[in-house]
Amino acid sequence: MKLTRCLTALAAAAALSAAFTVSAREYSVSTVLSDAFPWGQAAQKWADLVNERSKGEITLRVYPNAQLVAGDQTKEFSAMRSGLIDMAVGSTINWSPQVPELNLFSLPFLMNDSRDLDAITQGDAGQMAFAAIEKRGIVPLAWAENGFREISNSARPVATPADLSGLKIRVVGSPLFQDTFSALGANPTQMSWADAKPALTTGAVDGQENPISVFDVARVDQVGQKYLTLWHYMADPLIFAVNQRVWKQLPEADRELLRQAAIDAGKWEIELSRSGEAQRLADIRARGVEVVELTAEQHQAFVEATRSVHEKWTPKIGTELVDAARAAIAE
Ligand code: X2X
User: Is the pLDDT of residue 318 over 90?
Assistant: First the structure.
């Protein structure tokens, strides 16, 4: 009798714990920027769609500001690979130290506009970039975007490479950025986003480069960045991705759910991000920032000044991948 009761209690406990395991499936999602920015909104949209479509069974908890890697955004990919982080919506810049192929998107002036970017991500080159990520133990699911990166500084309007001469520019991620800004005669300093705003505030650096949405939301104008040049020199896509062990443990239906939700969230964010740019730029101008738009000749001078970066980095990225990207753009 006693034994039966005891067994019943055990069975009940086991059932309860099984139920609990199923209903409490929660995964961490790392981002660098919070949901005040399109980037964080992409991750939150993913979480919302997954929650809704799994009827609350799967929870994605978004941890912004690279907090799961103590602010060191270039460690995010490694942390996800080791299982410290389950999932991420990450920038190609921040993952390129571990996935050199992702430097493709950082090649200066490779892409002129969103059409070029889409041609890459939606074609063979995009698949090759995903294969490179997969080869390194991470499952990529979908694309979103941070945006075309524009350069700002506190000293003077920049319309030629000579205008950048000697300016201390905060850069992020891959050593490619050192090469680009050195080729332009500037003085690049690598640091995390967490350190960037204080460095701009104190004047430890003169300038930075980030998409218009980041300049706008982070109020970079408030830390003395009075000059903004629209040179569209590169764009960093965002990638939704999952640790391989986590992925393998998921039932097929859940994988499909996660993938489709990532694709939908990515499309939603890309649209949101692009459609908001004109208004953001108007707001930035209204705050007194001097916005420089380049003539075709001025643009060309920057292209020529950074050719050496392509020569040095194409072999590291992979000639086949760079060729595929160029072919996609040319089509
Ligand atoms: O650090 C940056 O500049 C940011 C926020 O754009 C990235 O994480 C690439």
Answer: yes
